[in-house]
Automatic annotation (TrEMBL):
It comes from Cinara cedri. This is Small GTP-binding protein domain,P-loop containing nucleoside triphosphate hydrolase,Small GTPase. It comes from the Eukaryota. One of its GO terms (molecular function) is GTPase activity. Pfam families: Ras. Belongs to the small GTPase superfamily. Rab family. Keywords: Nucleotide-binding. NCBIfam families: small_GTP (TIGR00231). InterPro entries: P-loop_NTPase, Small_GTP-bd, Small_GTPase.
């Protein structure tokens, strides 16, 4: 397992704010560009990257509504021989990005299998379908309308990207971070409400027995 450099572009005035942290796993067939997407996000580079063995890990911190959000990103290998290892990476992930190549329909069919596996094994995981290599759109083999329909029917976030030309790459991760932050805030608010409710009930019990 390789480890990429951590990048935390957070200023001193922001450190005092509570940092949220989420685990994100990238899934998809070999050569669809998962590592290229991560490399573009973290280093703003596009170059030839060695095949991932097992999984590669890095972190990236962005700002969502003035709150620092740390993304713990696991880029999994797409080769079939590593398939059995992947569940240990997505099992405790808050979000999954399932990537396919817009010029290769087979990779989309594989992506659908990954999504079905996620829905069966970790149904609460936020999932985004990402079609990469949009720079080769002239050679695409799956039409956008079909992809959007599939995403809607399966309650998926959906976006098309080009790691090569840096199209929508940051937006993919920002969208996920924003969604997860909303869920985290809602859960925290629910927890506080439950705490206040329990406190009120205890007060009532104490008052009635005085």
């Amino acid at each position: 397992m390789s480890k990429r450099n951590e990048i935390r572009p957070v200023t001193g005035t922001q450190i005092s704010r509570k940092m949220l942290s989420f685990k994100i796993v990238l899934l998809g067939e070999y050569s669809v560009g998962k590592s290229s997407l991560v490399n573009r996000l973290v280093k703003d580079q596009f170059n030839k990257i060695p095949s991932t063995i097992g999984a590669a890990y890095c972190t990236f911190t962005i700002q969502i509504n003035n709150t620092p959000v740390k993304l713990e990103i696991w880029d999994t290998a797409g080769q079939e021989r590593f398939h059995g290892l992947v569940p240990m990476y997505y099992r405790h992930a808050q979000a999954a990005i399932v990537v396919y190549d817009v010029t290769n329909r087979v990779t989309f069919e594989k992506a659908k299998k990954w999504i079905k596996e996620l829905q069966n094994q970790v149904p609460s995981t936020l999932t985004m379908l990402v079609g990469n290599k949009l720079d080769l759109n002239i050679c695409r083999s799956v039409e956008f309308d079909e992809l959007q329909k599939f995403a809607d029917e399966n309650n998926l976030l959906f976006m098309e990207t080009s790691a090569k030309h840096s199209v929508n790459v940051t937006d993919v991760f920002k969208t996920i971070a924003r969604k997860l932050s909303k869920i985290e805030t809602a859960n925290a608010d629910d927890g506080r409400s439950q705490h206040l409710l329990v406190g009120s009930e205890n007060d009532d019990k104490r008052n009635c027995c005085m």
